[in-house]
Write a structure and sequence with these properties.
Distance between the termini: 28 Å
CATH superfamily of the largest domain: Glycogen Phosphorylase B
CATH class of the largest domain: Alpha Beta
Structural class: alpha/beta
Radius of gyration: 22 Å
CATH topology of the largest domain: Rossmann fold
Strand order of the largest sheet: 3-4-2-1-7-8-9-10-17
Helix content: 25-40%
Largest sheet: 9 strands, mixed
Length: 408
């Protein structure tokens, strides 16, 4: 086994990764970019429609991507990779990784599990999406238990499953998941900052100097409950007509929702500095989703000095102090969400005060600490796979805030 500071070769397999834009893709890109400064990382993912069909390998500054054909999932606005067990096995026999981390549960993820087991490679996984919960939004509700059972069997075939929030971790344990590890998220407080507030951007949305800008950011899909936030914004506008509602993002529900709510500003996808400017130009963040495993966008809004109204679970539960740096709503209480949003928007002074407190909260949520915890877990998985006793396992970094083990 390598020494504590040794460089690992980590193979990460995922069905979502940039140039695709969503919270999971962005999280994995940040994870890979950070790990690749310490280790050798190879990423295996589907080729996106915008990429050349002939492109098979992409070499970045500090990691390599291997691209496989992808298949679109009808009506859901994303795609999965094709089964590639033989191809992955061929790659990994030629260039054997120390560990395979599987981030998604589609055909490419299944192929990675099979190939890794055939080669006796240690495998870890992460749980990013409640696909079983999505079934009710896409007309396949009766299949929820089938999907839930599949996800459980998939993750229980790996030595660790990393989960982003404590309440999800406990829920999965009750469903029979084993060897769960809390793997939280960080936020880039240099990127997302109140200093990026741009009055010209606000003006482009029709917001006057003293107008309140409401915002939500994320994939525009039915499982995100966007109509709940927009209807709350309509109630606020009834009392304050100069209020502006902005939706940042795109997805399969956008065309219908944009037609239904033409008074909303629909910006489409934004990334990088431009995304940070959009956050900072808002006054109140509305996060109506009840299907998240974490909710990165809440931390990004808070880091931008924008307080949030959100349901009491996942990232909001961990980081929002109700009526201190934002507002929490009992999970599932849609009427209360609207009431709280209306009350929050009523006082610009409170919004500014809570925004400052939200920003302060995020200053201690560092990505490097998260990466330390992730690396620690990978080293434990490798050690366990090779049968080292607990006292002989090499752990890089503290398990502290970033990682906590919960076994069934």
């Amino acid at each position: 086994m390598p020494a504590h500071t040794s460089k690992l070769h980590i193979a990460l397999v995922t069905e979502t990764f940039p140039p695709e834009i969503n919270g999971v893709a962005m999280t994995l890109h940040r994870l890979v970019s950070s790990l690749a400064r310490r280790h050798r990382v190879t990423v295996f993912r589907p080729r996106q429609p915008s990429e050349a069909a002939t492109e098979r390998v992409r070499r970045n500054a500090n990691f390599t991507e291997f691209l496989r054909p992808g298949l679109p999932v009808p009506g859901m606005g994303f795609q999965v990779g094709m089964f590639s067990t033989t191809m992955l096995g061929r790659w990994w026999r030629r260039d054997r990784p120390d560990l395979v981390h599987v981030a998604t549960e589609g055909p490419l993820g299944v192929s990675a599990l099979r190939a890794a087991r055939a080669l006796n490679l240690p495998v870890s996984s992460s749980f990013h999406t409640n696909f079983d919960d999505y079934t009710k939004h896409y007309g396949i509700g009766p299949l929820k238990e089938v999907v839930a059972g599949y996800l459980r069997r998939f993750h229980n075939r790996t030595r660790r499953t990393m989960v982003p929030s404590r309440d999800l971790m406990q829920a999965l344990q009750r469903q029979g998941y084993r060897n769960l590890v809390l793997f939280a998220r960080g936020v880039d407080t240099m990127m997302f900052s109140p200093l990026r507030r741009d009055q010209a951007l606000r003006a482009s949305w029709g917001a006057g100097e003293h107008a309140t800008v409401l915002m939500t950011v994320g994939r525009v899909a039915w499982e995100k409950s966007l109509p709940l936030a927009i209807e709350a914004a309509a109630r606020i506008r009834a009392n304050h007509p100069d209020t502006v509602m902005v939706v940042v993002g795109d997805g399969p529900a956008r065309a219908e929702l944009q037609s239904r709510y033409p008074w909303v500003v629909w910006t489409g996808f934004r990334t990088g500095i431009e995304l940070a400017q959009h956050y900072a130009a808002a006054d109140l963040f509305l996060f109506p989703s009840m299907s998240e495993t974490f909710g990165n966008v809440v931390l990004e809004a808070m880091a931008s000095g924008v307080p949030a109204v959100a349901f009491d679970y996942a990232a909001p539960k961990r980081y929002i102090r109700h009526a201190g740096n934002g507002w929490l709503v009992p999970f599932g209480d849609e009427a209360r969400f609207s009431e709280v949003a209306v009350g929050a928007a009523a006082s610009p002074r409170t919004l500014r005060s809570f925004g400052e407190a939200a920003r302060t909260t995020t200053l201690d949520i560092h990505w490097e600490q998260v990466i330390d915890g992730f690396e620690s877990t990978l080293r434990e998985v490798i050690a366990e796979h090779h049968g080292l006793p607990p006292e002989g396992r090499e752990v890089a970094g503290s398990r502290g805030r970033g990682v906590e083990l919960l076994t069934a």
